[in-house]
Amino acid sequence: MKKTGLLLTGMFIATGCLAYAWQKMPRQQSDLYLQKDLGAIQQETSQPEQIVKHEDEKGYAYSMLPEEEQTLYLEIRDALIRFEEDVKLSSCDKDMISHAFQCVLNDHPEIFYVDGYTYTEYTLGDILKKITFTGTYRYSQEEILDRQLKIESYVNQCLAGMPENADDYTKVKYIYEYLIHHTEYDAAVADNQNICSVFIEGRSVCQGYAKATQYLLNKTGIFATLVLGRVTSGEGHAWNLVQVDGKYYYVDTTWGDASYQAVGKTASYPGERIPTINYDYLCVSTEQMNLTHTLDNVVELPVCDSMENNYYVREGLYFTEWDEERIERTFREEYEKGSAYVTLKCAGYDVYRQMQEALIERQGIFRYLDCPEGVVSYSEDEKQYSMSFWL
Question: Domain range for residue 27?
């Protein structure tokens, strides 16, 4: 018997963020059946076995798979890259096929043109003999080539501005800032689940941001992979795991693209001085990320326990204790640099509470700010243990 099944990737999240989620779909939802009795066929046409190379695959998800699934991954990867049809797979486990397919897409943001896949089951009586695989595509090969040229143009322009001799941290910070400055969050834009929305349209949602971040960092030689999960509201979300100087960190470019909400004694604040970048999500630890994010990834991820290349640590804005002299020096330096605002990040709640009490409740902030009108505009983020003050 021959059965043909159709699997489409992804599920819509209420925020407009579409994340490829590995889920086991009930057969009645995922399979479209076509009956054909192979018992009436004297000889089945044989297909040559695929030759797949393990050594040329660097993807993180791939590295976390058992050997049998790695082979399946490579078969699917090559079929999608070559636009092959009815490729015989080495496994007949449909759950494993679904998982391996998801891992391929997580590792390869450049495969932006894939919508999903179809598979065909070949059975003899009740025995499943083989499964063949065919990708489903959003565009024709001519359209794919045109989009690849546009993507290449964007990438070249972006990377041309990267500082010379940049270290790993500087590369990650540059791409984080570049994407935020050149992308707007828009749930209605087309292709918002792939890199086209960012690199061609300049508008996207979380998965588009995350895949674009992964793509650009990989181009600079920085390890980055896609991470799937949820945020505190329960909505699906996507961000990145990166490696800086050999240590793992999380980066969430989408949540970095958000203006602070100025609060205080004024009813409004000049819009041009409201920051467009939130650095709370640039190179953070697992402990910090877990304050607002929950992992639901397709493969296991390492614990990120380093703060060495966290943004606030690298920029001298991270406080492990209340230090009045350092606070004063920090504000003075930010004024000298011409900054519009400064964010102070605390190592934990106790330090945050000390800073809140000293600067806000006892109004000690007026010692450090130039406030001719006696007004301070600031924001607080208790979950991230951070405070921002406008200068």
Answer: 2-138
Number of Cβ atoms within 10 Å of the Cβ of 283: 28
> Number of folded domains in the chain?
3
CB 261 within 8 A of CB 292: no
CA distances from 206 to 13, 113, 193, 252 (A): 11, 18, 8, 9
Angle between helices 141-160 and 168-182 (to 10 degrees): 120
* Same domain membership, residue 116 and residue 191: no
Neighbouring CB atoms inside 10 A of 29's CB total 7
pLDDT digits (tens, 9 = 90+) for 225-246: 999 999 988 899 999 999 999 9
The pTM assigned to this predicted structure is 0.83
pLDDT in tens, 73-87: 999 999 999 999 999
Same domain, yes or no, for 121 and 157?
Answer: no
